[in-house]
Design goal:
- With 223 residues, the protein is an alpha/beta fold.
- The chain is globular.
- It folds into 2 domains: 175 residues, Glycogen Phosphorylase B (Rossmann fold, 3-Layer(aba) Sandwich), CATH 3.40.50.2000; 34 residues, no CATH class.
- 40% of the residues lie in helices and 16% in strands.
- The protein has a 6-stranded parallel beta sheet with strand order 2-1-3-4-5-6.
Length: 223
């Protein structure tokens, strides 16, 4: 019998999908915990995609989906704790965070993402909307028992921009599941040019231009 019953509410967009899979692969081996997964999808289809605000705003969509998932989970099992990644699905569930001991995990604060907006095709909303968003996030951070950030940069963002006490935050880098790469074929000397695979949803932000500069410097005969 498991010692703890935990609920994991996880955003399913971009690299957070990989983070989810890494958590699942490791936590399923832990016999001391009974884990319940609530995956919050990015996609929306049909009539839901046409709903005003819901279909176009990820924060609203993720928040409502996560809130429904948490309510359904709490009605089914008695949770010892909740783990929510990221703050986006947590933003509309502060009341649940007060009731169930909770940890919020995040890679960056909303205000930090605003500062990097151009690289992510992200724009700030009206001043009133940004004030409401900041207040909701701040309330959510206060309700959480603890916070986990992927970097010291994100931790500083919580402390400096949202007044979260530093002792309430632990930095845990997401890491890489090395088991996934253990079967790589050893490199052998060959006469053909080296093949390079570029993986990234955004060419410029993911360093595509740097790769092209390096390619031109090395020459097409080598790769």
């Amino acid at each position: 019998m498991s010692d703890y019953t935990l609920g994991f509410v996880l955003e399913q967009s971009l690299g957070h999908v990989t983070h989810t899979r890494n958590l699942q692969s490791h936590l399923l081996r832990d016999q001391e915990i009974d884990v319940h997964w609530c995956l919050v999808p990015w996609q929306t289809h049909g009539w839901q995609a046409r709903l005003p605000l819901y279909g176009s705003n990820w924060t609203v969509r993720a928040g409502l989906r996560a809130r429904t998932a948490i309510r359904n989970l709490v009605e089914t099992v008695r949770l010892d704790a909740l783990f929510i990644h990221t703050q986006v699905p947590a933003i509309l569930s502060a009341d649940w965070l007060w009731r169930v001991p909770s940890v919020i995990s995040l890679d960056a604060t909303p205000l930090q993402i605003d500062d990097l907006g151009r690289a992510y095709q992200h724009q700030r909303g009206p001043v009133w909307a940004e004030r409401v968003k900041r207040a909701l996030n701040q309330h959510c951070f206060r309700a959480a028992r603890h916070l986990v950030t992927w970097s010291e940069w994100a931790k500083r963002g919580l402390v400096d921009l949202y007044d979260v006490p530093a002792e309430k935050i632990t930095v845990i880098a997401p890491g890489v599941s090395v088991d996934e790469w253990s079967g790589a074929t050893p490199r052998h000397t060959h006469d053909r040019p080296l093949r390079i695979l570029f993986v990234g949803a955004d060419f410029a932000r993911k360093g595509g231009s740097t790769l092209l500069q390096s390619f031109r410097r090395v020459g097409p005969q080598r790769c």
